[in-house]
Amino acid sequence: MHDPSLTPKGEDECQQLCQRFPYHQSIELLVASPLRRTIYTALLSFQPEVERGVQLIALPEVQETSSLPCDTGSDAEILKQEMKGKPVDLTLVHDGWNGKSGRWAPIGAAIEERARQARQWLKARPEKEIVVVTHGGLLHYFTEDWTESGTFDGKNDPPHVSARVLLTDPVGTGWANTEFRSYHFIEAEEDDGNASMTETAESSHRRRGTEKPLTKAERLQLRETAMKTWKSQGFQVESEV
User: Fold this and answer.
1) Are 35 and 10 in contact (CB under 8 A)?
2) pLDDT digits 0-9 by tens, 196-210
3) Closest Cα to residue 59, out of 119, 113, 141, 149?
4) Could you tell me the pLDDT band of residue 224, with boundaries at 50, 70 and 90?
């Protein structure tokens, strides 16, 4: 199905997330992938923010990674018609954003680049507490954390893991459905313009307890394994045809 909306179960999960999310009062900005399911996830899960006028911006850079119909967004004009009257800013959603070619191609290098651009855009924002509603596959690129990248395949309901700023819908990912974690940007002198992020100690502890973090070499190996797996499953391709 092309660009599906939320199922009744998905709507229920959003309502549950809204009830258990403990940081509604501190959120200053909402950002969502322009796919219909992520826009509606943001509107339902963060209704208190929407009601007090917090802006919701649709950001094409955080769209899903594959070119499958369910991961391909609607045309900009169709989205504008559907979202008319809803508090969704589609200014950044232009014609071709859903073309899955060029910068939007389901190729590892292209996905890494747009994930980096999304981090840079967020880091440049004046707001400090931002919610990003996006997808499990993209989040591994976005956070540069490849831990458990194949844990969930969408067939089973995973256990709830609490944390803070990001959430998603999973297929071949280490992120549970409507899971949220918190991250902060690495200080400028430690970064190289990549706008890298690191998970907060509180978020990591809630997910893993005292488990020792992976080394850089181990994280890179997980990255390579995940990308090979996603290519074999058809979620990504080697190059554009």
Assistant:
1) no
2) 998 898 888 887 666
3) 119
4) low
Compute the distance between CA of residue 158 and CA of residue 150 in angstroms, rounded to an integer: 12
3-state secondary structure the chain: CCCCCCCHHHHHHHHHHHHHCCCHHHCCEEEECCCHHHHHHHHHHCHHHHHCCCCEEECHHHCCCCCCHHHCCCCHHHHHHHCCCCCCECCCCCCCCCCCCHHHCCCHHHHHHHHHHHHHHHHHCCCCCEEEECCHHHHHHHHCCCCCCCCECCCCCCCCCCCCCEEECCCCECCCECCCECEEECCHHHCCCCCCEEECHHHHHHHHCCCCCCCHHHHHHHHHHHHHHHHHCCCCCCCCC
What three-state secondary structure class fits 183? strand
- Distance separating alpha carbons of residues 91 and 60, to the nearest angstrom: 10
